[in-house]
Amino acid sequence: MVYRLNSETLGEKISSLGGLIYQVLKRLAETTTGYDLLHRVFHEQYEVVKGQAILRPKEDITARSVQNHNDPDADYRKKETRR
């Protein structure tokens, strides 16, 4: 069985996830395995405003953001513009 979310519900879930990740990051030691990657992903996707994690607009997320947690250095290449 497949469940689908409408875009409004999906946005709410993603925003809620940002709040959860923010709380986890505040409690983890920076030396914890995986902390750096979680910190990077969080700050690429969210910004903190008045103590709240706010999802960044998709236009603000670059192609250099993490695309695969197993290979955090992988990203989309920037294509040359030719005329």
Offer a quick outline of the entry.
With 83 residues, the protein is of the alpha+beta class.
Radius of gyration: 15 Å
- Record the strand order, biggest sheet: 1-2
Question: Termini separation (Å)?
Answer: 48 Å
Tally of strands:
2
Helices and strands, in order, run as HHEE
Largest sheet: 2 strands, antiparallel
- SS element count, helices: 2
Label the overall shape. Answer: globular
Mean pLDDT over the full residue set: 86
Q: Helix share of residues?
A: 25-40%
Strand percentage lies at 5-15%
Description of the molecule:
39% of the residues lie in helices and 10% in strands. The chain has 83 residues and is of the alpha+beta class. It has helices at 7-27, 35-45, and strands at residues 46-49, 52-55. The model has no long low-confidence stretch (mean pLDDT 86).
List the defining traits of the structure above:
83 residues; alpha+beta; two-stranded antiparallel ribbon; 2 strands; 10% strand
